[in-house]
Design goal:
474 residues
Length: 474
């Protein structure tokens, strides 16, 4: 297939995808989200006409686009587009095929495409997918426009990534990690946040020169180095503390490593990101119940969360506060996916997470959390696929080691009876958890004192009416 490429651009992409589908193509993305769609929406009549050439634009995560002219037009597959992108970016084809993939993304929904998919056909299904897997309004659905991205494969193992030596590949992995950091998808500690930001300052401005560099140089560019919620700090008489702190960290970085090259800085940035349990995750949207109690001005709405799922585990992130609520490896949890019953069709599908937690007195209790989401079926499919790969890798390792007696592979999931360990991170006060003891009996959670403005005013009014009138001052 002959293909021509033009210069890169950073304009917002707009796709004119074909109104075509492939018969029997009942999966979309790594997670088969289109499974179960009406067959009439998935079928198409085969066409004998020669496909027309088509110009498209595939984007990297920094919004730099690569324009391509496709001779196969709308029939071009994901695999063919991935190969063309690897050639265009001068990446080694064998490695790039494992490390990167094509994604169809919008602010509402993100899907990784399989090699045989034809993105132009999937675009026609986008409204159906948005309606089925999100809670967006008709107006949001009408405005939503998917974009083709070339980015990290969700199933590429982090341990393999650490062994990479190709600077070009590391550069594109850095670009993606940088964007995720800046849009607050990496809820890391303040120390890690300023270290990552200092690396970005160093890449842009070079080594610190005390004669030319000062905190004022960051005054109008904080959003290029820090997540948005860090850029909203208030000013003081000494300036903005965020700028001062970032500049000090920048000076420390330059003093420790004065001759660090850009490629080394890229790897240094990634090395910090590799320590995050959510690095390389697929982000799904969900909601969880808030625990009862505390100050209540009105009924507590559900808490919106990102469910970040990787090959190794699952992390729940509070979207509003940008903080981790729960993080578990697959060998620390069991899970189950349930759909609403016919009597409760208005309810959302649910992903149940079960894990053990050690209490302050040394006892271990079983905790269960419900995550409600139309994307719960995709979460379940992603977890199943990840666990299947983990078990396959464990089996291959046993064979390589020549184990004397073949043993049945240990599986993770709702049917496993494995011994679960303590959760990596769990903010119990922010989660509505059901608690069970080892005998399977429900343990009631200790009640929290409830406070509401209405009840407080009512109590104050009652107190005043029941108290004797005060003596009039003479």
């Amino acid at each position: 297939m002959t293909t021509t490429t033009t210069a890169s651009t950073k304009a917002r992409p707009r796709f004119n995808f074909a109104n075509m589908r492939k018969e029997g193509d009942d999966t979309v993305g790594t997670f088969s989200p289109a499974e179960g769609l009406p067959s009439a929406q998935l079928s198409m009549a085969s066409s004998a006409r020669t496909p027309k050439p088509l110009e498209i634009c595939i984007y990297l995560r920094d919004q730099e686009g690569c324009h391509m002219m496709l001779d196969s037009g709308r029939m071009t597959t994901t695999n063919e587009l991935s190969l063309l992108m690897a050639e265009h970016l001068l990446l080694p084809l064998a490695e790039a095929h494992q490390i990167f993939g094509l994604w169809l993304c919008s602010p509402i929904l993100e899907l990784q495409l399989k090699p045989h998919h034809q993105p132009f056909k999937l675009r026609k299904q986008w409204s159906d997918l948005i309606d089925r897997y999100t809670n967006c309004t008709d107006e949001q659905m009408e405005r939503d426009e998917p974009v083709l991205y070339y980015q990290r494969n969700a199933f590429y193992h982090k341990e393999d990534e650490k062994k990479l030596s190709n600077e070009n590949i590391i550069n594109y992995l850095f670009i993606e990690a940088k964007q995720n950091f800046l849009i607050a998808r990496y809820p890391c500690s303040e120390d890690d946040t300023f270290t990552l930001a200092a690396i970005l300052v160093r890449i842009v401005n070079g080594s610190c020169d005390i004669n030319n560099h000062n905190p004022n140089m960051l005054k109008n560019s904080l959003t290029e180095y820090l997540p948005v919620h860090y850029c909203k700090k208030k000013w003081t008489l000494l300036g903005r503390p965020t700028e001062q702190k970032l500049f000090e960290r920048f000076k420390e970085l330059c003093a420790d490593e004065p001759s660090m090259t850009t490629s080394v800085l890229h790897r240094h940035f990634l090395q910090i990101c590799w320590t995050f349990p959510f690095y390389g995750a697929v982000y799904f949207q969900g909601q969880i119940e808030r625990p009862a109690g505390g100050m209540k001005l009105r009924d507590n709405p559900d808490r919106n969360v990102h469910v970040a799922i990787t090959r190794n585990g699952i992390t729940l992130i509070d979207i509003l506060k940008t903080e981790i609520l729960l993080s578990l490896n697959y060998d620390e949890l069991s899970w189950e996916f349930t759909e609403p019953t016919s009597q409760r069709l208005s309810c959302l599908p649910c992903l149940w997470l079960e894990f053990d937690m050690e209490q302050s007195d040394g006892s271990v209790l079983n905790k269960i959390l419900q995550v409600f989401s139309k994307q719960a079926v995709m979460m379940n499919a992603m977890i199943e696929a990840s666990v299947e790969q983990m078990n396959k890798k464990d089996n291959d390792l046993e064979v390589d080691l020549g184990s004397p007696e073949p043993q049945e592979a240990q599986t993770c999931g709702s049917e496993s009876l494995m011994k679960k360990t303590k959760a990596i991170v769990c903010k119990q006060d922010s989660l509505c958890l059901s608690t069970y003891c080892n005998e399977g009996k429900l343990v009631p959670n200790p009640p929290k004192p409830q406070f509401s403005i209405r009840n407080s005013l009512r109590a104050l009014s009652t107190k005043r009416s029941s108290s004797p009138p005060s003596q009039q001052r003479l």
